[in-house]
Amino acid sequence: MTLALVAQSLVSGLLMGLIYALVAAGLSLIFGLMDVVNFAHGELLMLAMFAAVVIFGLTGLDPIVQLPLVCALMFGLGALIYRGIIARALSLRFNRGMVQIFATFGLAIFIRGAAQFTFGGDFRSVSGTCLSNRTASFGAIYVPLPQLAASAVCLLAFAGLLLIGRTEFGRALEATREDRDAVALIGIDRDRIFAIGWGLGAATVGVAGVMLIAFYYVSPSVGANFAVIAYVTVALGGFGSILGALVAGIIIGEVEALTALVLEPSLKQVGMFAVYLAVLMVRPRGLFGKI
Amino acid sequence: MDAASPAAGKPADNAILRRRRQELWVGLAILLALSVLPLPIRDVYTQNLIIITILFAGLSQAWNILGGYCGQISLGHALYFGIGAYVSTLLFVNLGVPPTLGMFAGGVVAGLCALLVGWPCFRLSGHYYAIATVVVGEIGYLLFLNWDWVGAATGVFVPFKGESLIDLQFRTSKLPFHFVVLAFAAVTWIVAWLIEGSRWGFSWRAMRDDVVAARSLGVRVFPSKMAAAAISGFFTGIGGAIYAQYVGYIDPDSVLAGHLSILIALPAVLGGVGTLWGPLLGAAVLIPVSELSRSYLGGGGQGVDLMIYGGLIVAVSLARPAGLVSLLGVRRAPQA
Question: How many domains does chain A have?
Fold first, then answer.
């Protein structure tokens, strides 16, 4: 095992970790706001990837150019899911926690079925983008451009998410998170904030999906893999913490890459799961968790 | 249900005892009905559907002991199911231990495993616990997938050693398996019934509804959760062992995959979590819908079956947060 190989692994781990982080950020945002774990999060990622494939097929627009469009679509979908399902689950007096888990889980199955119905079970991808098959090299380390672009966009998205936290809307978000009943007294429409929160969470995962499609295949079942990793990332970083999702995503990506290098590639997820469990033993609320 | 109107004497006690005796009679009636149900049925597909439904009613009742009565939403029960299946099958294949014994070994190992998982995970609360159980289940799946001694991804074939009750092997008819799974479901139901009326049941429910208050009344939270986990894991493991003998072949995808954890939990959740009848009712609705829609609409990977199944889950969980049992007017187990 040469030093170059280790460095190469570390770099790929970082690039993949940033994608994991962004997928997890959407989940964490929604959780932090209203204590809801979206078990259909992986399916939202899958839908965003399919959206990019379809739009590329229709218009030939490069995925990066599609970003605003797919984000807007995902935002609408997220808000719709909130209005249709989550708002109702939140209004229950009884068994609320369990209902939201299994309602979003049922939604995940539904979306998977709908995708299967619409697109079939084949794997699809977008090829021939402006970045496809191009690689940048830094010394002995090679970085495929689609991955590099994805990481850069992920970092920008994180900057955006953290900036939102500083705006008037971000403060309303934070206030709603702190006390969802008291905000009504100062004229914040809780329902609207929650809907926008869901929209943002879905748009965030939409960014990850669009960037992913340039170097990853999509099929109706692609969500499950990413979803488990996203839950681990969010729990490791601490539910509700955007910064935690970023740090935990990078850790998860690195651990995955190093496990694949040291053990077998088929065991790469065992490494990240073990690290997650170990951290949770020491910090039950994750690295940056406050809730 | 008739109101628990305070009659003369010791009203509350009598009402509860009467209700519990009533439940026992209803349970017996259902057991009898299910015993004669398969006799006129000759169609193998329907027989299989009934067997799977009853098996999942039992599994979900086992889940209910930890998830419902104790309130610990485990999304990793596939691990205990798979361990029960593997232990019993490997004992049978390698050492010739009959599965009627082997399934208890499988149950015990699964129960111990539940304790091992519970020991660190019960410190976590709410979603952190649920996600930790998902991850533990995934780890088990990945380890078995890469573990050559247990057949890795190829899995294990259960050799047919001749028609035998002690080996739980029946080729000529599915009928014997009907009674095996029925016995399994009946035992899990009785265990849940016993727990519901026991000191344990009361302290678990108290703990589920308010940890702090329960602790102040002297409920020892951690040992209670561990006890619930061990019982739940034990019966889930036994269910796995029976399933392995029934299908005659196991691999990580069929007995350890993550979606199985959800399949085990769903009947209890949609039927009525923390109730005696919830898992039964949930399984009776959910399993046939999923199997029938898959057979009639799932051809060619169309996905319509998944849409119906998923839609049903969303609709039931939103419309009936207390579960389908609330439609029957059956009273929920006493709750704060």
Answer: 1
Dist. CA A112–CA A87, nearest whole Å: 22
The minimal CB distance from A94 to the residues B127, B265, B321 is found for B321
In chain B, domain spans? 44-255
Give Cα separations from A6 to A148, A206, A261, B246 (angstroms). Answer: 18, 31, 8, 48
CB-nearest partner of A270 from B134, B143, B302: B143
A198: domain CATH number? 1.10.3470
For residue A116, give the amino acid letter.
Q
Question: What's the complex ipTM?
Answer: 0.85
The count of CB pairs under 8 A between chains A and B is 137
Q: How far apart are CA A276 and CA A286, in angstroms?
A: 9
Report how far residue B65's alpha carbon sits from residue B72's, in angstroms, rounded to the nearest whole number: 9
Is some CB atom of chain A closer than 8 A to the CB atom of B322? Answer: yes
A133 is a domain residue: yes
Q: What is the pLDDT along chain A (291 residues), one digit of tens a residue?
A: 578 888 888 888 898 999 999 999 988 888 888 888 889 999 999 999 999 999 988 888 888 888 899 999 999 999 999 998 888 888 887 777 788 888 999 999 999 989 988 887 788 877 777 777 778 777 777 888 888 888 888 888 888 888 887 888 888 887 887 777 788 788 788 888 889 989 999 999 999 999 888 888 888 888 888 888 998 898 888 888 888 899 999 999 999 888 888 887 778 888 888 888 888 888 888 888 765
Domain that holds residue A49: 3-282
Across the interface, whether the CB atoms of A102 and B313 are under 8 A apart is answered yes
Per CB-CB distance under 8 Å, the chain B contacts of A277 are 120, 132, 135-136
- Contact predicate B104/B238, CB 8 Å: yes
